[in-house]
Amino acid sequence: MITLALSKGRIFDETLPLLRAAGIEVLDDPDQSRKLILATNQSDLRVLVVRATDVPTYVQYGGADLGITGKDTLLEHGSLGLYQPLDLRIAQCRISVAVRDGFDYADAVQQGSRLKVATKYVGISREFFAAKGVHVDLIKLYGSMELAPLTGLADAIVDLVSTGNTLKANHLVEVERIMDISARLVVNQAALKLNQAPIRRMIDAFATAVAR
Ligand code: PRT
Ligand code: MG
Fold first, then answer.
1. Residue 52 CA: which ligand 1 atom is closest?
2. What's the fold here for domain 2-91+182-211?
């Protein structure tokens, strides 16, 4: 049995067409059912529904053989024990710095200055601002980052942006793009060695689906 870890929402929704291209159908809808282990039309493949940030953990410790996770999550989590064979080019977005409309960001990031940054992406942010020589006080948040500059909690946020509508609706502007993000296939290195043929077939099926 091969186990694939997915998170509900955009990753699950955008993975379905790739699976379908390989003839794989997931037999339950995670939005309708409370099941966390979903059967597929392939007797040797099942899908685990986990939190997006838990996908690398499941795959790293072998709770799942494969998983699909955003590059943002992988960078924050680290990729110890994970083989990353494929960029699936789904769930695309970018990770950016945003500030309140009217905030003088250029002035705030002068060399030697200090900036308060709220984010879920503490590791990515620390590295980005360190490379610019900007001192940052990082405030870890778990969601609704957009509120931080509006309430005076922080000067800036580092968050994912896709359409930009969320920023706009909250009177924030994107001032720097840190990097482009998409979802990656991750594979447990030990599982790949032990169960080679079926896992290889899954990787090849995803590669073919992405190339279509
Ligand atoms: O939402 P939940 O707390 O359950 O978990 P999660 O946020 O960890 O998972 P999920 O499903 O929201 O995101 C999973 C992955 O999708 C992320 O790790 C990214 O790799 C990818 N992804 C792609 C995105 C977006 N696009 C995205 N736009 N993840 C989040 N967003 C959010 C963003 O944080 C912001 O709040 O959408 C909002 C901005 O969208 P726009 O279109 O208004 O710019
Ligand atoms: Mg989310």
1. 8
2. D-Maltodextrin-Binding Protein; domain 2 (3.40.190)
